[in-house]
Amino acid sequence: MTTEPMSAGKRRPAGLLRTFVAGSLVAVAVMVALAGAGVYRIYYSHVVGHAEVNAVQLTRTLAEHERDTLAGNPAAGDAAARLDERMRKYLKPLDVLKISVYAPDGRVLYSSDPTAARENVSADPRFRAAMAGEPDTRFVKDRSGTGLDLVESFVPIRDGDRILGSLATCTDVTWSRSEATTVVTLATLIVLCVLLGVFGFLFGIVRIATRQMAAAQRDLETMAITDALTGLSNRRYLMARAADECARIPRQRARGAAKSGVGFIMADIDGFKSVNDTHGHLAGDDVLRTVADRIRKVTRRYDIVGRYGGDEFLVVVPDTDFDETRAVAERLWQTVREEPSVVGGVMRPVTVSVGFTCADDDDVQAAIKRADEALYRAKHAGRDRIVAF
Questions:
Q1: Higher pLDDT residue, 51 or 251?
Q2: For a Cys staple, 263 with which of 46, 158, 183, 325, CB 3.0–4.6 Å?
Q3: Is residue 5 over pLDDT 50?
């Protein structure tokens, strides 16, 4: 007997779990990406800050030890050579590629790069900020295709409250690439592990909840299509499945199927009212369950068996013909009557009257009406017999 629910939403809890997993993966990916980007920005802010601190310290050293040279003309004669020698000594441990000293008007007083001797930076916003007393430091990635990552700083040179000029440094921070990659990778892995742990825990909770929801949904769907007393399909489900099977008849016939009909077998328990009146409704319920179990045994897995109402049962036999429907009806009738049942503590025979027909079109109501008419004839012909229509 087929009892699978027809609800289109039967997989909704599983769909909810898939949605949660997909949403979680997206959330994890976004969070990891944001965390990586955040760590990257923080790390390079540290690199830039460190380079600026070095530039400020270098400026203080210059202001303390080179005040007289800077106040004069450091670019002239031996003064330039001596200053250049001292500058290289300062720069060597600091990874500074270039250093320039600018007068208040933007002229170059000294530069470790000879090609910069004639430049004037008076219009440069960074120089102007330095002359206003504010250091300006920026990170420049792979400038001019050199393959180097640089930090450029413009720092004011002070003598007390007086600004003598500006010091510009260009620091090589290419080394930070591999270190940044390591830091970002470790941070990303840590965040990923934490998020996977959190979402894994939540996934476990949601999975348990969705399984419970799915089980509850299956129970509700089974209850909606099942007769509570006999465990067979109820009338609502029977009619829906019968309509589905009859709708297939034209398609089956068009494909040339050998057996394209749908059989309808109606069975009614003989003398059931007397069982209720004599032994009570509990005994009547036992008889209904007994007959239901016997009918279930003689039907095929894909036949639809249900309680049509009261003490009437309906069997819908798909992909069949008149003769095969008759054979199923005879097995049903014989199996129910072949062994007595306990009724009210007493062994007594239980028989059924059976009417059947075979539909060859999609008119379900007409087919059921014919089967019901055949059942009526069987009852009025003396019961415990099979009548075809």
A1: 251
A2: 325
A3: no
70, pLDDT greater than 70? no
Which range of 208-212, 340-344, 352-356 scores highest in mean pLDDT? It is 352-356
Q: Is the pLDDT of residue 144 over 70?
A: no
CA distances from 129 to 5, 96, 117, 119, 163 (A): 76, 21, 21, 18, 12
pLDDT band of 2, cuts 50, 70, 90: very low
Looking at 3.20.20.150, 3.30.450.20, 3.40.50.1820, 1.10.3720.10, the CATH number of the domain 15-177 comes to 3.30.450.20
Mean pLDDT within 166-187: 83
Name residues whose C-beta falls within 8 Å of residue 112's C-beta, 6 or more positions apart in sequence: 84, 87, 88, 91, 98, 99, 100
C-alpha–C-alpha distance, residues 265 and 325, integer Å: 8
Please write down the HEC assignment for all residues of the chain: CCCCCCCCCCCHHHHHHHHHHHHHHHHHHHHHHHHHHHHHHHHHHHHHHHHHHHHHHHHHHHHHHCHHHHHCCCCCHHHHHHHHHHHHHHHHHHCEEEEEEECCCCEEEEECCHHHCCCECCCCHHHHHHHCCCCEEEEEECHHHCCCEEEEEEEEEEECCEEEEEEEEEEECCCHHHHHHHHHHHHHHHHHHHHHHHHHHHHHHHHHHHHHHHHHHHHHHHHHHECCCCCCECHHHHHHHHHHHHHCHHHHHHCCCCCCEEEEEEEEECCHHHHHHHHCHHHHHHHHHHHHHHHHHHCCCCCEEEEEECCEEEEEEEEECHHHHHHHHHHHHHHHHCCCEEECCEEECCCEEEEEEEECCCCHHHHHHHHHHHHHHHHHCCCCCEEEC
What's the whole-number average pLDDT of the chain?
84
Considering Cα of 273, then 276, then 281, then 283, what sign does the dihedral take? negative
* Placement of tokens 């992909």 in the chain: 319
CATH architecture of 235-388: 2-Layer Sandwich (3.30)
Query: What local confidence, expressed as pLDDT, does residue 79 receive?
Result: 63
